[in-house]
Amino acid sequence: MRLIRLTLAGLLAAGMLAACGRGGPGSTATPAAAPAVTERTLQLSGGPDRPLPTLLVQPTTAGRHPVVVFSHGYTRRPDDYLPLLRTWAAAGFVVAAPTFPHSARGSAKLDDDDIVNQPADNAAVLTAVLALDTTQGDPLFGRIDANAVAAAGHSLGGMTTVGMFTKHRDERLKAGVILAGGQWPFGVGYTGPPAPILFVHGRADEVVKFEGSTEAYDPLPWPKALLELPKGDHLDPYLADGPEFAAVAKTTTDFLRWSLLHDDPARARLAADAGDTGKLQDRL
């Protein structure tokens, strides 16, 4: 079944744009930044016509840290997801979240078809961030684990992430997290070394139907898990402070800790992480 292409000129422009206030930068639901986490913006690009200002959320703790490149949804921006990104950074991950030129809120020209260029954008961002490990004077000098890299994304960003494991496989990736995403427009031709992937999707999602995730999840031959949120919609589980957000934050964090840091106790917590708000299908 073809994923509802988000009907991004119609459904998202009407429904999702109307919901832009929920969980956004001005939301009172946004929790305070975790201690031991700092934020900065890198002025990166994927070429002369593809500026990619990248929000970098990083731990201040010592040692080498894995990297997660995060893709925002259509008409969203990276700072909309700060509660989740800060949770990951506080758990020891460097999170790099670019603002894409044609799918972010405030873009001069919104175009969902530009998704075909976003996996390459992420690859360029990842290359630049990994290079900070050898850049003297940078706060991340000597503090990045280039062998522990994941991609994650929400909605159109989740589809972008699927593309990084299929048509535009980035073999640096060791794991993936797909939030309310699907296989459009990249298909399910997974390639390269196996990498565990966690899918998360709400049954009440009217923007990208739950089947969007199952279409990408079912054919995946690698270790995988699917967190179903029976009452979850398209935005609140990933942006807002509540029981579903808590389940998503805990589950994704422990999945990343297990897949990138080989944290077996974190793997053992996954089922409990879902709590009473989610159902975990575990094939990891």
Automatic annotation (TrEMBL):
Keywords: Signal. Transmembrane segments: none annotated. It comes from the Bacteria. Residues 1-18 form the signal peptide. The keyword Kinase does not apply. PANTHER family: CARBOXYLESTERASE TYPE B DOMAIN-CONTAINING PROTEIN (PTHR33428:SF14), CHLOROPHYLLASE-2, CHLOROPLASTIC (PTHR33428). This is Uncharacterized protein. It comes from Dactylosporangium darangshiense.
